[in-house]
Amino acid sequence: LLINIIFLPFSYATDRISADDIFKAGDDFLSVGKDTSEAINTEALDNTSSTIFNILLAIAICVSVIIGAVLGFQFILGSVEAKAKVSEALVLYIVGCCIIFGAFTIWKAVVTIGNDVIVERQSSTVDKSSSDNEQSGTHKSSSGATHGGSSGKF
Fold first, then answer.
1. Start-to-end C-alpha separation, the chain
2. Which has the closest alpha carbon to 100: 131, 127, 62?
3. Which run of H or E residues covers position 146?
4. CA distances from 74 to 82, 86, 97 (A)
5. Quick one: which of 93, 102, 107 has its CA closest to 64?
6. Which pLDDT score, from 0 to 100, does residue 39 have?
7. Is the pTM of this model over 0.85?
8. How many CA atoms does the CB half-sphere of 91 hold within 13 Å?
9. Which residues contact 140 (CB under 8 A, 6 or more apart)?
């Protein structure tokens, strides 16, 4: 039984893998990454992120207003001991609101900065193509129109 357990995995015919197969699989993997037809749709990603942000922000505002109202009623209607407990809870409530709305602010800042970087990167590629036009004798005026067009040889 022990001999069968040891030699059983080696008794089946397996596909032999050569170094060429490994390199071909690696090249196939890299070529998939270079394919730009399946690039990330940044507009759809931005719309989805904006929708999620707005929904979560609305929920956070509603929850914070409801909790604040409950704490306010307890503070107004409670006894002296209840007011002391509500005061402690109010400190935690304020800290929680600062954390929640601070997180939303950071999220919005990161998304805005990321979008600005993407727009800047796209405009730099447009500027690069326009600088090629400038070398050929064309230039852009302050109104945005392209003028000139000589071959550059005089």
1. 92
2. 62
3. strand 146-148
4. 7, 7, 19
5. 93
6. 65
7. no
8. 5
9. 130, 134, 146, 147
- Supply the pLDDT for residue 12: 56
Cα separation, 123 vs 126, in Å, equals 5
Residue 122's region, left for phi above 0, alpha for psi from -120 to 50, else beta, is alpha
Structure tokens at 11: 């008794």
pLDDT at 152: 47
Q: Report the pLDDT value the prediction gives residue 123, as an integer from 0 to 100.
A: 72
Rounded distance between C-alpha atoms, residue 83 and residue 71, angstroms: 9
The per-residue pLDDT for 117 is 80
Residue 154's pLDDT is 42
User: What is the H or E stretch that residue 139 is in?
Assistant: strand 138-140
Closest CA to 82 of 92, 93, 71, 95: 71
Question: Who's near 86: CB < 8 A, 6+ residues apart?
Answer: 71, 74, 75, 78
Q: Please list the residues that pair with 140 across neighbouring strands.
A: 146
Structure tokens at 109: 């800042």
What is the mean pLDDT, run by run of 10 residues, along the chain of 154 residues?
A: 62 66 87 71 80 91 94 90 90 94 91 80 62 52 55 47
